[in-house]
Specification:
This protein is α+β, with helices and mostly antiparallel strands and 150 residues long. It has two domains: 90 residues, F0F1 ATP synthase delta/epsilon subunit, N-terminal (ATP Synthase, domain 1); 44 residues. The protein is 29% helix and 41% strand. The protein has three helices and eight strands; from the N terminus they run E-E-E-E-E-E-E-E-H-H-H. Strands 1, 2, 3, 4, 5, 6, 7 and 8 form an eight-stranded mixed sheet that branches. Helix 1 runs antiparallel to helix 2. The longest helix has 21 residues. The chain is elongated and about 55 Å long.
Length: 150
Amino acid sequence: MPAAATFRLRITTPENVKYDEDTQMVIMRCITGDMGIMAGHEPTSVILDYGVLRIINGDEERRMAVFGGMAQVQDNIVTILANDAQWPEDIDIAFVEAERDRMERRSQDNIDDLAIARDQIIMRRTLVQIEVSTFPLISGSRRESDKDES
């Protein structure tokens, strides 16, 4: 069976390069919904939303929390310039869960519209971080628990 076609995926933040490797597929959260990219995709530029970015190579998948930015697809290169991005191992889950709980308590208070909007952004960020942090660093087509039952 021939190897799947790849493209170059580069993910950078203002602080550093998070990923720069050949990849078979990436699925990213855009402001208009999720977008999947594979080799040979037509040129495009999109604005990224807060969400989970999925990097898929064969039966392996990695996930990253991405917090806004933009992506450009051109000449079999996908360049993602993220405002912020975190691998699961970068996320302090205890801090994130405490932040989520704090935002839930604050939503009960009578606060102004600007504070509500700010808190909603923080809540979205914490929910993305929690989702990414609970996913294995690299997953295969079969979970470890499935293999134990075999």
